[in-house]
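ESCALATION

Customer reports they have been waiting on this structure for their group meeting. Please prioritize. Original submission:
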Amino acid sequence: MNKGIILAIASILTFSSCHSVSPNADEEAVLVKKPWFFGHGGVDMTPVKSGLTWCALSTYGVNFKIVPEKHEIFLDDLFSDDNTPLDFHSVIITQIVTGKSPILLSNYGEKWFETNLYNYFCNLVRDHISQHSPFDLMSNREVLNTIDQKIAKQMQDYVNLLSKNKEMPIIIKDVIIGKATPNKEQLAEMNRTAKVVQAKQTQEREYEVQIAREKAERQKAVADKAYMDEMRLSPSQFIQLKWVETVAAKSGANIDVLVGPAENMWNVKRK
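Update from on-call: job pushed to the front of the queue and completed.
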């Protein structure tokens, strides 16, 4: 048989029994080898960096991010120190130690976070939330920052504890539990309470205005009585005087006013 044909057939057989693994620049690929028929496969402890790598059909690759990775976790109905149910949109940022993704896969599998860290993180958040008031959890940034730092340390301590048995090459980069938000039922109750409080405050302000008006009227009455006594005016004369003052306040008024004897007459003019 022609040597060129043999080489072509060999090439076809070789490439048809291979496939490529090509992780991105921010990833490592871990090759997992399966036996063709008998024997043992296993994890290749040398990770594949970015670029194209060919491997047998019985081998597959698992890609891992080696840059900080964000895990978003939604936690509903966590109870504060007064048993108020609150919701949280929390984030934990982790990073795999470069070059150790094969160790992570071999020891903890592809779902290493979900099966080993998720529940522990949720329990830590729940425990810390139960120690603080709804007000602090919704608006006190200092309290929230302190909780974030404590949980981040506790998570790293837990990773280190797991690593004593089987290495977990994970760094806890950051934790952000986020500001608390009331759940739908709690929010509706808060809105109802706010309306009641607002109505009460409006009622109190109206009452204060009424009291102030009555006080001013009493003071004016006292002042008017003192004026009447000083000027020796009868009630009817005082009423006439007030009428004159009212008319005089209008433009064009020119009025002769007689109160008592003729010598007490005066003229009121207003331009």
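Sent to customer with the following note: The CA atoms of residues 197 and 203 lie 10 Å apart.
Escalation resolved.
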